[in-house]
Amino acid sequence: MDLGIAGKKALVCGASKGLGFACAQALAKESVDVTLVARTESTLRQAAATIQATAGGRVDYVVADVTTAEGRERVLQACSRPDILVTNAAGPPPGNFREWSIDDWSRALNDNMLSSIELIRMTIDGMIQNRFGRIVNITSSAVKAPIPALGLSNGARAGLTGFVAGLAREVVQHNVTVNNLLPGFFDTDRLRNTLDYLAKQASTTLEDYRQEHQQTIPALRYGKPEEFGMMCASMCSAHAGYLTGQNILLDGGFYPGTF
Hints:
The protein is α/β, with parallel strands linked by helices. The chain is built from eight helices and seven strands; from the N terminus they run E-H-E-H-E-H-E-H-E-H-E-H-H-H-E.
């Protein structure tokens, strides 16, 4: 299926590895001109080279920390009027809320809520003027079913979700959509770090915990990043203009609710 976005410009954050990389790669295969953003130049350069090998469009990258004002300015200098924005930032560490200070909360809110809102603010008017825009925020399945050990993430990402719910309904008349893509357990570095923490809490090995944990997922496996990337690309399709303000959950059936 032709997604109808060849030649569009995409800005993808956290794109040097994991789910951000998968989203950038899927868009590039649709002949979208993609600008990758991450903080580490060595991994970012390698990611750009890997994606360019199968891309139908141009692949650029910019080294920047989008959780800072300076980083966001640098990103927008490299790609000032994107048609597609994928926001993504590393989640805060797991832990017990009794150990978290106001500074810990402020950092989590800045990184996983406010930074995404700022990037949206800086790009959405150009999308409205162009009569095309697709914004996808990578959040977490914790928005639907909070994970106790990830309280900082639960709170920050829920805040972003609430903001998007209102904004999405204001801009869809301009063919600009804003949605959230909620990963469950995908086989990434982030998941491995979380499982390592949980295994230690359970006084078991990482491998044993991982084996048992996968059995709790109806799909009996962790998600593959490329599956996530393809879903992101489909949400950015020219044919997806009626999808907005939604939380698309990819979790292999782990969430037990009907809604």
